[in-house]
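Sequence and structure are kept together here, with a separate record for every protein. A complete record is shown below as an example:
=====
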Amino acid sequence: MRAAARSVVAAAALGLALGGCAALTGSTAPGEPGAGPTAPIARDSLAARHRQQAEALERDGQLRRAAEEWKIVLAITPGDARARESLRALQAKIDRTVAARIDEGRKALARGVEPEARRKFLAALALDPNNRAAFDALQNRTREVEFVTHTVRSGDTLAALAQRYYGDRSRSEVIWETNQLPPNPRLAPGTILKIPAIPGVPFVHPEARRPPPAVAAIPTPDVPRPGPAPAPSPAPGAPAPKEEYTPEVNPLLAEARDALERSDYADAIGTADKYLAGKPGDREGLTLKKQALYGQAKSQMDAQQYPESVQSLTQLTRLQPDYEDAPALLKQARTRVVEQHYTQGVRFYREEKLKEAIAEWRVVLEMEPGHANARRNIDQAERLLRGLEQRMKK
């Protein structure tokens, strides 16, 4: 009896295995027309998802990631002429964009605007990491840059210093490069940093503004060398000059910012939560938490940790449903999780682990109730289980 039962499962599993996972085969699977109560899991269906992702990424300007998606499409369906042509056209577009960024960087160098040139060369390397021209241009800069010094205090971050001296947080990269800091550095109090002068961008902080040079008198036998001029006395009744006020930085906020800058997203989120526990709804704390959740979700997706990215993006969209491209990323991550559970169910089915297969496909239905193949596969597996139980009783 047991041998007969196992032969039934083996035969059913073989029918599923021959077409089982859409990513592995192009024949049949549970629910396919012409194969009893089975349905197609065509490899074209999997390729179509990557094709859609490639097109969406290209529209969003993420050309390198779009090229990777087209390569996946071609790996799944090598004969896809349309995908091959799309990849060729996209690669040509990337080459043109890289050449344009290098040209813009060289022109910025010629104008003496080195921070802009650096951004252009970095943009070229982001699209083509092996581009030697952009790499050499970044490495071989030799012109000295004027700078002022800043002694790091508790709570300082590169972004905060850029805001303090330039009035623009996005210029933190200039300070980072000038001081040859490691990626995502933690600024230790007492460290001396160089704050470079950016041509065309005046310092906004009073301590960085340099007074115009004084013209010294030429000493003669009758004219002694001038000494330091006495400080002007305030007029009677005039208010005393105000001392500069530097607001205190909450240590938890400073710690969360530092963690975010070094891409330690879990630490940044945990620290932001501690801060928000004492100040619920604080705008700065919420902004930091959203930035950390977004960075964590992107990092998890890059590492193909799709279930974890779904959790991060779900938290983020609860805080702000329209944050950046979080809704689209959440949809993409959920699709990948569904694919993983569906494929694992097929593997269990082929291994005659029917209960485990059913459990995986039920997860698919929880996330995507309209998934017809998962529903049909569950019905088929449950019928097999019932048949096995009846045979075991005989």
